[in-house]
Amino acid sequence: METQPEILSFVKAMASAERLRIIGLLSQGPKSAVEVASALGAHASDVTRHLEQLTASGVVTEANGIYELDEKAVESLARGQFKGKRPVYDAKGKGDDVRKVLKTFIKADGSLKQIPPLGNKLLIILNFIVDAFDFEANYTEKEVNTILRRFHVDTAALRRYLVDEGLMARESNGTKYWRVKGDSK
C-alpha cells in the first residue's frame, strides 16, 4: 500500500541522471525544451520525455512551452516527508555499544563508511537503515535500491541482510518488499 504516492513519484523522477541534470539547468532559471536539449547536448525528444515526467511528479511546471523548477513543491515534498512522519533512530538510551557502532560506521551525512561484518554490529546498522522504510508501504526492488543507495552503493547486500535478519520481507520473485512489524532486534 503506497501511503505517499507523491514522494514515490518524486523519488522515481529523481532516479535518472539526465533528469537531475535538467533540474540543475532549471534551477538557474526557466527554459524551453529546446534550450534544455541544446545545453545538455541531448535529443529534444529525450528531453521532452524527461520534462513530462518531471512535470507529472510536480517538480517542474510548464507554461507556454517554458519549463520552470517548482522549488516550493520540492520543498513541500521534502518537508512533508520528514515532518515527524518517520521515526528517527535515537541511539540515546540504547547503550554505549550501539552509539559506538553508529559512530564507527556512519558518516555525518547518514551514509555508511563501510558495511560491518556479520554479527551485532551489522544488526545495529540494519536497525538504523530500516527506519527509512514505512511499515504501511510496499516497495519495488528499484524503490528499495533507491532508498538504500542513500546509505551505501552495495544495495544488493543491504537488501539481502535486511531480509535475512527479518527486518524486511519480500515476495519470492522479488517484486514486492515491505517492512516487517515486530520487536526491533
Protein model, in words:
This protein has helices at 5-14, 17-26, 33-40, 44-56, 71-82, 96-105, 120-130, 141-149, 155-164, and strands at residues 31-32, 60-63, 66-69, 138-139, 168-170, 177-179. With 185 residues, the protein is mostly helical. It folds into 2 domains: 5-82, Arc Repressor Mutant, subunit A, CATH 1.10.10; 96-179, no CATH class. A 3-stranded antiparallel sheet has the order 1-3-2. A 3-stranded antiparallel sheet has the order 4-6-5. Helix 1 packs antiparallel against helix 4, helix 3 (33-40) crosses helix 4 and helix 8 packs across helix 9. The protein starts with a helix and ends in a 6-residue tail after the last strand.
Keywords:
185 residues, mainly alpha, 9 helices, elongated, 10% strand, Arc Repressor Mutant, subunit A, 3-stranded antiparallel β-sheet
Topology of helices and strands:
Blueprint (H helix, E strand, L loop, with lengths): L4 H10 L2 H10 L4 E2 H8 L3 H13 L3 E4 L2 E4 L1 H12 L13 H10 L14 H11 L7 E2 L1 H9 L5 H10 L3 E3 L6 E3 L6
Antiparallel strand pairs: 1-3, 2-3, 4-6, 5-6
Helix pairs in contact: 1-4, 3-4, 6-7, 8-9
Tell me briefly what this model is:
The chain is mainly alpha-helical and 185 residues long.
